[in-house]
Amino acid sequence: MRLILNRCLRHVPKGYICKFSSTSTAFSKIGKSPVIIPDTVRLNKIILPKSKNPRETPISRLQVKGPRGKLYLHLPPFIKVTQTPIPSSTSRRATITVEDAKNRQQREMWGTSRSNLQKLVLGVTEGHSAILRLVGVGYRAMIENEGKLLQMRLGYSHTIKMPVPEGVECSVPTPTRILLEGVDKTKVNQFASRIREWRIPEPYKGKGIFINEETINIKVKKVK
């Protein structure tokens, strides 16, 4: 087996072999960067009950609580979050470390955990948003049932009705604009994607539902 592998590697350019570890290195660099925690945000570690299955790796949750609500970050056992005060500031510095920086899996989770913590802090302080633009003749949106039901007219024979998921605020500033807001970026983006699926932008007439600054290159139909 080793002989076959060595023969295969002879035909692989050296540059491609090095690229396999570049992602992990990048993640470790991201992980080393501290996250600034405002004085309005609190981080609380919650230890989850041990699983009855001995094979399952125990994990903990980090509660991120701020003015707009609270979110949770799942942490593997080798991840540690340390908070230190910042001189002449009411904010704190949160640093994420791992047990073994040479372990590839830990390096990848290092950067991922840091990025997720940054998103959660932003979510509970400022919140996340997405703006959807309805482009098409007769395309309209309206909100009903005290903001819990989104209705859209998108050129179909019927009106599209979509319940607004919990944790997401939906408003219609204009008939062709839908504003989604929430503390959880994933929930906001997922609902925006579900709305977009009803009219994915098409490249010939430029019609569809566009998210934020999304654009599309218009194609010219070939004349036979």
UniProtKB/TrEMBL annotation:
Function field: Component of the mitochondrial ribosome (mitoribosome), a dedicated translation machinery responsible for the synthesis of mitochondrial genome-encoded proteins, including at least some of the essential transmembrane subunits of the mitochondrial respiratory chain. The mitoribosomes are attached to the mitochondrial inner membrane and translation products are cotranslationally integrated into the membrane.
Gene Ontology CC annotations of this record: mitochondrial large ribosomal subunit
InterPro entries in the cross-refs: Ribosomal_uL6-like, Ribosomal_uL6-like_a/b-dom_sf, Ribosomal_uL6_a/b-dom, Ribosomal_uL6_bac-type, Ribosomal_uL6_CS
Residues of the signal peptide: none
Single GO molecular function: rRNA binding
Every Large ribosomal subunit protein uL6 alpha-beta domain range: 135-209
Source superkingdom: Eukaryota
Keyword Ribosomal protein belongs to the record: yes
UniProt-listed GO biological process terms: translation
Family, per entry: Belongs to the universal ribosomal protein uL6 family.
Protein name (database record): Large ribosomal subunit protein uL6m
SUPFAM superfamilies: Ribosomal protein L6
The keyword RNA-binding is assigned to this record: yes
Organism phylogeny: Eukaryota, Fungi, Dikarya, Ascomycota, Pezizomycotina
UniProt organism field: Tuber melanosporum (strain Mel28) (Perigord black truffle)
